[in-house]
Write a structure and sequence with these properties.
Alpha-Beta Plaits, alpha+beta, 70 residues, 2 helices, two-stranded antiparallel ribbon, 4 strands, 31% strand, 14% helix
Length: 70
C-alpha cells in the first residue's frame, strides 16, 4: 500500500497521472485547487504497486508517493 498525495498548490490538472498509472488509481475529480483547476483524485491507494510513474511523469512535481513496507 502507498500514501499518495497531490499538492493542490502545484497541480495544474494535466491528468498525465491518469494515463501514467498502470493500476489506474487516479480519477478525474470535482475537487478544485486554489487556481480553480480540477485536480486528480486518488482511488484505491491499496492497489498501488509503488512504481512511482505518476510521481516521475508529473511535470509540476505535484505528486508524492510514499510506499509502506509490508
Amino acid at each position: 500500500m502507498a500514501n499518495i498525495t497531490v499538492d493542490g498548490g502545484c497541480c495544474k490538472g494535466c491528468y498525465i497521472c491518469l494515463t501514467a498509472c498502470p493500476k489506474k488509481i487516479f480519477v478525474k475529480s470535482k475537487k478544485r485547487n486554489k487556481y480553480g483547476t480540477n485536480m486528480p483524485g486518488v482511488e484505491h491507494p491499496d492497489e498501488c504497486i509503488g512504481c512511482r510513474m505518476c510521481e516521475r511523469l508529473c511535470p509540476d512535481g505535484a505528486i508524492d508517493v510514499e510506499v509502506e513496507d509490508k
